[in-house]
Amino acid sequence: MPGAGIGVALALLAPAAAHAQDHRGDEGAGDDVIVTAQRRAQASRDVPISLTVLDGGELEQQAALNLDRIGAQVPNLYLARNFGTTSGALVFMRGVGEGDSIFTNDPPVGIYLDDVLLPRSTGAMLDLSDIDRIEVLRGPQGTLYGRNTSGGAIRIITRRPDPAHADAMADATIGSFGRIDVRGAANAPLSDRAALRVSLLSRTQRGWGRNLTDGARVNGQDVQAARASLLWDMPAGGSAQLSADYSDERSAPRFPQQFAPDPATPGRYLNRFVAPDGSIDNFRSADTNPLNDTLTGGASLRLSWPLGDGTLTAISGYRALRSQIGFDQTANASGIGANIILLQDQRQHSFSHELQYAGTLAGGRVDYVAGLFHFTEHNDQMTAISGAVPAGSPAARFLTGDFFAAPSRSGGDLGNWSPYRPQLDTRSLSAFATVTARVARRLNLSAGLRFTDEVKRYDVRFLTAPGETLILPDGTEAHRRIRQGWRDLSPRLAIDYTLERGDLRALLYASAAKGFRSGSFDGRARNIDFVLHRQGAIAPETLWSYEGGVKAGALGGRLTANVDYFVNDYTNIAFSAARANLSPPEIFRQNVGDARIAGLEADISVRPVRGVEVGGWLATLDDRITRLAASPGCTAFVADERRLDLRFTPARRFAGRASFEHRTRLGRFRIGGDYTGSSPYSIALCNEPQHRVDNMEQLNAQFGWDSVRGGWSVIVAGTNLTDRRWNTGSVGVIGYPAEPRQINLTVRRRW
């Protein structure tokens, strides 16, 4: 019901806690938020980039405490937990994204924590604790940011230590399915120039599903996290900030649900989940011992000091993770066929170093940023697919930590089942610069350029025991090493003009920018003959984005409208997909071809009277394949593969939001919510019927109270209030239902 949904969305009184455009959109309905999207402090309304800003305080008031909640607040951003995992981020922006979390595929939408890149989607689904703001930049950002981001960038900026004030916060949340959260943060001045800020988080939930095989609760949460930051403001005007963070997640993996068979077409499936014992929250899986542990963290040092007419900044970061997963990809009950268990044990670490200089020339008429970026990363992952057939009691268990449990191989030594160990080493070196010149009053021209030199080495071994490489019949080892390098030059040109007519102020802008995503390797390939003799590198993707837009404000800032139109020419698109009608689904990766994606994004917010805000956004995507480089094997579902819909490209997405705030002697009361919906879209490359999502709609609402004195707050929040259960991700004949309706109560105290 997308048409009706738009009308409801724009009329809804929704997000909790004044979801004001000055804090979450491009322009302020009053005071304008300051952002650093262009590597210098600017009012967001003056940034000629498609930009959405989400204020950390507003996110807290909406009880949006994890990164997966922001997708509904940003036009043409799809952000959810990746298939089966709880810490992996599945991100598509304007139809550009990566659906496979394996480390051989670089995410084209960069997620940055305090300007340090989180290089893997695994571990990137962060809890939003003690956050100052999130800046979401749509379109290529390579001339401004670390590693090139062809689809866009998500910048998470934490709260900075403050030497001038001491403060603290603590809150506790209880909610549906046994949810218990505890969070705390404190800022401690150490001197008039130094301060320490610390935050802690614990999030647990027993789970919203039940495995009928053993009666256990599933889809539970267990996360413990901490972050600390030490700041020193130097006497000469510089600063040094040392930060460290750590997260230990031992949640249950998300359990899959099978799709219902199509009674009219044997061998085909419908986009409708089965409902064991009458509920899709019941699962029949023989995998009663799943594994989903992720340890991730890092440290960074940011040095900044004035030099000449500008500021020199050095940012060094270290990130590491250990991720162990073992979960069912078939959802078969005990004794019913085989259970395909994916086993992965990943170790990753990376170092990044960025040196940038931002300054002005010609009496302030020219702003510029120039920098160097160096990045190295190592990934090592033990991987196996177990085709186990559980036997015995209904509580049959899989040894998810044992990669060599029978059957580790089938079909001979050249079959697909040997445990294998892919490794990837990456070295990336870049130089970038952007210059903005005020060529006339209110008229600016910008030009940027980025050079990237990247080398990757992919190494894979098939194993028979820990540390023992498989020996083939000819006496050679089942081992392959591939080394490949790529170079790229990515420009950006932009023009913007500020129009002022009475109460109206509008920034008009247009840009053309190129994005680049490095080449990759098929880390899922497990056919030994293919890997040893035919496997090669996957070519890099490039994207040219052409965009024009306007950011307007009127009525004293009470009305804001941000509208843009873009066209993406997307070349050498690399896809990971499951080959149709194979069981187990065989994942493959290749360059499919080229596509053109065009879209309109409009975000409007109005404050008609004091305390009331109503707004919403509408986003469109029109995609078509312009060149098919190789058949992806989808002719069983689409006769002409050039007519395939790209993944996560709904023709329309929309959101409505509203809030009401009233102050009394008893405190400040707030009520609000948001409503989000979408036209149908496909999750899988081949557009199989079961992977078509046609019921994505969600309603959230919140009620809040803040005391006049004493720093107390209470928030009651509900998510997915209509209990709509769409498919958030799928492969083969199984998918992952959206979480059911949940109600949470948070009590917060500030000092």
What would you say this structure looks like, in words?
The chain is mostly beta strands. The chain is built from 4 helices and 43 strands. It has a 22-stranded antiparallel barrel. Strand 7 (109-113) and strand 8 form a beta hairpin. The radius of gyration is 26 Å and the shape is globular. Residues 1-31, 391-397, 406-415 and 580-585 have low confidence and may be disordered.
Number of strands: 43
Q: How much helix is in the residues?
A: under 10%
* Main pleated-sheet profile: 22 strands, antiparallel, barrel
**Principal-axes shape call:** globular
Q: Compute the separation of the termini in Å.
A: 46 Å
Helix and strand composition category: mainly beta
Beta content: over 45%
Mean pLDDT: 87
Quick summary of this structure?
The chain has 751 residues and is mainly beta. The protein has four helices and 43 strands. A hairpin with a 4-residue loop joins strand 23 and strand 24.
Q: What keyword list fits this structure?
A:
751 residues, mainly beta, 22-stranded antiparallel barrel, five-stranded mixed beta sheet, 4 helices, 43 strands, 3% helix, globular, disordered N terminus
Give the SSE layout.
Blueprint: H1 2-11, H2 21-24, E1 34-35, E2 42-43, E3 51-55, H3 56-61, E4 77-81, E5 89-93, E6 96-98, E7 109-113, E8 116-117, E9 131-138, E10 152-158, E11 167-175, E12 179-189, E13 194-205, E14 209-211, E15 216-218, E16 221-233, E17 239-249, E18 257-261, E19 269-273, E20 282-283, E21 291-307, E22 310-328, E23 339-361, E24 366-388, E25 420-440, E26 443-465, E27 468-469, E28 479-501, E29 504-517, H4 528-533, E30 541-554, E31 559-578, E32 587-606, E33 612-620, E34 622-628, E35 652-664, E36 667-678, E37 681-682, E38 692-693, E39 697-706, E40 712-719, E41 727-731, E42 734-737, E43 742-750
Parallel strand pairs: 7-10, 14-20
Antiparallel strand pairs: 1-2, 3-9, 4-5, 5-6, 7-8, 9-10, 11-12, 11-43, 12-13, 13-16, 14-15, 16-17, 17-21, 18-19, 18-42, 21-22, 22-23, 23-24, 24-25, 25-26, 26-27, 26-28, 28-29, 29-30, 30-31, 31-32, 32-33, 32-34, 33-35, 35-36, 36-39, 37-38, 39-40, 40-43, 41-42
